[in-house]
Specification:
Layout lengths: L8 H26 L6 H6 L1 H10 L1 H17 L5 H12 L1 H37 L3 H11 L1 H10 L5 H10 L4 H11 L1 H12 L1 H7 L11 H23 L6
Helix pairs in contact: 1-6, 3-4, 4-5, 4-6, 5-6, 5-11, 6-9, 6-10, 6-11, 8-10, 8-13
Length: 246
């Protein structure tokens, strides 16, 4: 009589590790469907007076609730991160609004980073490390210039925020390095959008919509490009010196 084979513990362990990122994916899909009419500019405009009244009566509670909601929006990749940034400026002005935005976005990004890294990061990182050719060269280049690359993907407006959270997880970036680069790397963009939110009172009064393309205007974009150049400067210096880089 043969023994009945036990369930594969390795497969069970893999499923448990991937459960957080699976939950995030499911919540993201459900949130995109059910919350699409709530986290919008129109919803913010319609509820502006009640939000201001609640803030004036419960400032600290408003700050805590706002940060909690924003963190959840980012952590679960829900629609409305830009609206939350505008709301931060609308409710709390450019300062300290941008600081609340950066704190919440960093905490949410850290949540999805840890979920992805726990579920896939080590396995994918090992596969990339064991690969050959151009893939291995790219990984080695990123490993040697992690600070520069982390700041660069945060500063460049064209890089989607959720991708900037996932890529470092797959490349085994240390948590501390990810948190620091995220916090400081998103400050420029956050300041711009928070300042737009701070001026929403006039926008609402005029019945208009905010100019979210402001970040691409020369007087805003050029300084950000300058920061991007500073971020890649160590890579350029290494290349000029003949060292291995990207």
């Amino acid at each position: 009589m043969t023994d009945t084979p036990e369930p594969d513990s390795a497969q069970s362990s893999a499923l448990v590790k991937r459960l957080p990122i699976i939950v995030i994916a499911v919540v993201a899909v459900l949130g995109a469907y059910f919350l699409r009419d709530y986290l919008t500019f129109d919803a913010l405009a319609e509820n502006r007076e009640s939000l201001i009244a609640f803030r004036d009566a419960n400032y600290l509670l408003t700050v805590l609730v706002f940060i909690a909601i924003y963190t959840v929006v980012v952590a679960f990749s829900l629609p409305g991160a830009t609206i939350m940034t505008l709301a931060g400026g609308f409710l709390f002005a450019t300062f300290p609004g941008f600081l609340f935005n950066v704190i919440a976005a960093t905490m949410g990004a850290t949540g999805i980073f840890m979920a992805a890294r726990w579920g896939f990061g080590k396995q994918l990182g090992a596969k990339l490390e064991g690969s050959e050719g151009i893939v291995k060269k790219i990984k080695d280049g990123i490993d040697e210039n992690q600070w520069s690359m982390l700041f660069l993907i945060r500063l460049v407006p064209a890089v989607p925020f959720f991708l900037a959270n996932l890529i470092p997880a797959f490349l085994e970036v240390p948590l501390r390095r990810f948190v620091i680069s995220t916090f400081f790397g998103i400050i420029p963009g956050s300041v711009v959008y928070t300042s737009v939110g701070a001026g929403l009172g006039e926008v609402f009064a005029a019945g208009e919509t905010p100019n979210l393309g402001l970040i691409f205007e020369p007087h805003i974009l050029l300084p950000i490009i300058g920061l991007c150049v500073l971020a890649v400067l160590p890579i350029i210096i290494k290349a000029v010196r003949g060292k291995k880089g990207l």
